[in-house]
Structure formats: structure tokens, C-alpha cells
Design goal:
With 192 residues, the chain is α+β, with helices and mostly antiparallel strands. 30% of the residues lie in helices and 32% in strands. The protein has helices at 2-22, 155-191; strands spanning 26-31, 36-44, 47-55, 67-74, 80-86, 90-95, 99-107, 119-123, 125-127. The chain has a five-stranded antiparallel beta sheet, with no helix packed on it. The N and C termini lie far apart (141 Å).
């Protein structure tokens, strides 16, 4: 009976730990009235890689507060840990501990170790859902191929093009002959 309790306790701990680890790999949605930060948190190389973009940040926030920093609150100690500075709305950084909440604060310096009291927005990570019953499927688009019929020239159009080309050629020759004859006549009358 004692072994059964330990085994059940172990399974409960594993389930809770697996839920905690999975809860920090997902999409970020930090939103307040005028500021919205969207991003993603992925487990990579022994830590969480957090990247995304914020919209609606005003530069400077106040006279001395002209930087924004993204923070994460760790699960194990409840500490607030700096993840990254937000540069022109974009952020990308790492946090090694599992975290439960995220904050954006306005700061005097982008490399501070503790957040100021100027909190702009806060939120949590929404875990990715791999439930296939909730998956949306893109509609299948059937390709349609249009067949292009080559233009077939009728005998009348071919003959018409030939006749019009000959007419243009004859007209050019006549203009050249008349022009040459006028030039030679004018020269002949001068020399005589």
C-alpha cells in the first residue's frame, strides 16, 4: 500500500511538472488598452527562447524612461528575470527558468537588473495545442488549367497581310522614285 501511494505521488508530480514545462512553450499575448505584444516562447538549448513584437509603445514613455524591457516571473522562486530589451517594438531573448507570467516595463536603461514600477503590459503564455480535433484545415483548392487555343489564321487574313505589306513596299518605292526624279531634274536644270 505504501508503494502504491509513492507511485501515485510520482505520477502526480510528473504530470504537474510536465504541465508546467509545457505551459511555458507557447504563444504570448500581452495586451492593455493601447499596447499589444505578441510573440512565441520555445524550448531551445536548455532554456526558453522568447521572441515577438509590440505595437503601441510610445517613445519616450516619460522624460527619463525611454527604454522598454520584457520580464518573466520564474515559477520556482517567484523572481522577476530580465528577458530582453524591446528595440523599436521587437524583442528576442532567453530565460533559463520556467516562468509563469510576463511583464513589459518602461526603464531608464535597457540593461537594468530589476524592473521599475512603470509596468506597461502583462500577461501569460498560452500553451500550444496539438489537439487534432481543434485543428483548422485549409480548404483544398482544385487547380484549374485553362487551355489556350492557338489562333489559326485563315487564308483571307494571310492574303490580306501579304497584300497590305506589298502595298506599303510599293508605296515606299514610288515615293523614293519620285523623290529621286525631282532631285535629278533640279540638278539637271542647274547644270544645263
Amino acid at each position: 500500500m505504501g508503494h502504491m501511494k509513492k507511485l501515485i505521488g510520482l505520477f502526480v508530480c510528473l504530470f504537474v511538472f510536465a504541465g508546467v514545462a509545457a505551459a511555458h512553450e507557447g504563444s504570448l499575448d500581452l495586451t492593455s488598452g493601447s499596447v499589444s505584444c505578441k510573440g512565441v516562447s520555445l524550448w531551445q538549448d536548455g532554456g526558453y527562447r522568447v521572441s515577438g513584437r509590440c505595437d503601441g509603445l510610445v517613445y519616450p514613455y516619460e522624460t527619463m524612461y525611454n527604454k522598454y524591457v520584457l520580464w518573466g516571473k520564474t515559477v520556482d522562486r517567484g523572481e522577476i528575470v530580465r528577458i530582453a530589451e524591446i528595440d523599436r517594438g521587437y524583442f528576442s531573448g532567453n530565460i533559463t527558468s520556467t516562468f509563469e507570467a510576463m511583464y513589459v516595463t518602461a526603464e531608464k536603461d535597457g540593461l537594468v537588473r530589476k524592473p521599475s514600477d512603470k509596468q506597461i503590459v502583462a500577461g501569460k503564455v498560452t500553451p500550444f495545442s496539438f489537439d487534432k480535433s481543434q485543428a483548422t484545415v485549409a480548404p483544398i483548392v482544385k487547380e484549374t488549367t485553362a487551355t489556350v487555343q492557338p489562333k489559326t489564321a485563315t487564308v483571307g487574313t494571310v492574303v490580306g497581310k501579304i497584300v497590305s505589306s506589298l502595298f506599303v513596299i510599293i508605296l515606299v518605292i514610288v515615293v523614293l522614285v519620285i523623290g529621286a526624279s525631282l532631285i535629278f531634274r533640279s540638278r539637271g536644270s542647274v547644270s544645263a
